[in-house]
Amino acid sequence: MRTLILLALAGLGAQLVDGSLGMAYGVTSTTLLLAVGTNPAAASATVHLAEIGTTLVSGASHWRFGNVDWKVVAKIGVPGAVGAFAGATVLSGLSTAVAEPAMALILLTLGLYLLGRFTFVGFSSQNLGKPLRKRFLSPLGLVAGFVDATGGGGWGPVGTPAILASGRLEPRKVIGSIDTSEFLVSVAASIGFLAGLGSEGIDLAWAGALLVGGVIAAPIAAWLVRHVPPRVLGSAVGGIIVITNTRTLLGSDWIGAGGSVSWAVYVVLYAAWAAALAYSIREHRRNSARERQEARTGSGAESETAGAGTGGGAAKEGAPSA
Fold first, then answer.
1. Which of 27, 62, 87, 227 is the 20 to 30 Å CA partner of 17?
2. Residue 1 gets which letter from DSSP?
3. 39, 26 in Cβ contact below 8 A?
4. What are residue 9's phi and psi, to 5 degrees?
C-alpha cells in the first residue's frame, strides 16, 4: 500500500511537471520504476498504460484552457504513434542486461538536454505565427515516438524543445499540443508492449497508482502552465533525471564503478545541479525585472507623448487669443 501511495504521489508530481513543461512525465516515472528494480520493458509499458489516461485528461484540460493547436496534434501525433509502436517492439525484444543500461543512457541524454535547455536557453518569439510544416513535424514525431517507447519517456523532451526552438507557436500551445498528441503515442506504445510482452511483468496496480496521481494533477497543470516559470522547473527535473540515471549506469556492467569513484561523480553532479538551479533562478528574476522595467519605461514614454500632445494643443489654442 505504501508503494502505491508513493507511486500516486510520483504520478501527481510528474504530471504537474509534464503539464507545465510539456515533458518529463514518462522520463520521471520510468526513472522511478527502474530505481526500484522494475524490468526496463515492463517499466516503460506500465508508464505508457498509465499515460493513456493521464494524456486524455491532460489533453482535455489543455483544450478547455485554449492551449491546443489541433493541426499540430494531427501532423505530429500520427507519425509519433508509428514510431512508438516500433520502439515498443524493439525494447520488448531486448534482454534486461542490455536494456537497463541502454535505457538509462537514453534517459541520461534526455536529462542533460532538459538541464541545458532550460538552464541556458530562453524562448524565441521571432517566428511566432508562422505555420509549422508537415515535413518538419512528421519526422520529429516519428523520432520522438520511437525514443519515448524505448526510453520510457522522450515524447516531450524531444518534441517540445524542437517546436519551441522554431518560435512559430506560443509556448502554452506547444505544451498543450504535445500533451494532447501524446495520447496517440501512449496508445500505440501500449499496444506494442502488450503484443511483445503480453502482461508479463506489467504491474496494473502500479499503472493505476500512477494514473490516479496524474489524473488529479492534469487539470491543475493545464492551469499552471501560464504561471509556473518553466526555466527553473526544467532545470530541477533535468537534474533529478541526470543524477538518477547516472547512478544506474555507474552500477551497470557497462561501467561497474567502485564506491569512491561513484561518490566523486555524485559530488560533481550535485554541485553542477545546484549551480544550474541557482543560475536559472537568477536569470528568471533578472528577465522578469527587465520585462517589468521595459513595461514601466514604455508606459512612461506613452504618458510623456500624450502629455506633450495635449500641451502642444493648448499652446496652439492659446496663440490666436494672444
1. 87
2. -
3. no
4. -65, -40
